[in-house]
Structure formats: structure tokens, C-alpha cells
Amino acid sequence: AAPVSVLWTACLSKARGKELAYTIAARYRVGDIVLHDKFGKGVVRKLASNKCHVIFEDKERLMASAN
Question: What is the pTM of this model?
């Protein structure tokens, strides 16, 4: 399997729109670019109930959201 950083770079290259500051209260869509205070730049890969899967350069994380 490819390292997470390679997948992160590929997702970032396909992402569209402006970067959004990450907050728990926001709604996200697949492909959104989020900026997290601790984890840096990430891309939303999947949505779940009140959560979203975001890939960062080091790993994919399940993040709280308003979805």
C-alpha cells in the first residue's frame, strides 16, 4: 500500500475550493480542504453521521462535524 503522504498529496491535488478552517460546528463535503490547528492541511474523504474522515499528511482521522 502507498504511504499515507502519497495518498494525501493525490487527494490534495484533486481537491477544489478554498481552504476552510476546521471547526466541529461546520458542515463539510467530500473533497473539501480543511486547515486544522494541530494536524495541518487535510482533505475530507468520507462523511458519516456527525463525523467526517479527513486525510492529513501523517494519517487519516475521524473528525467531529455537523454533518
Answer: 0.92
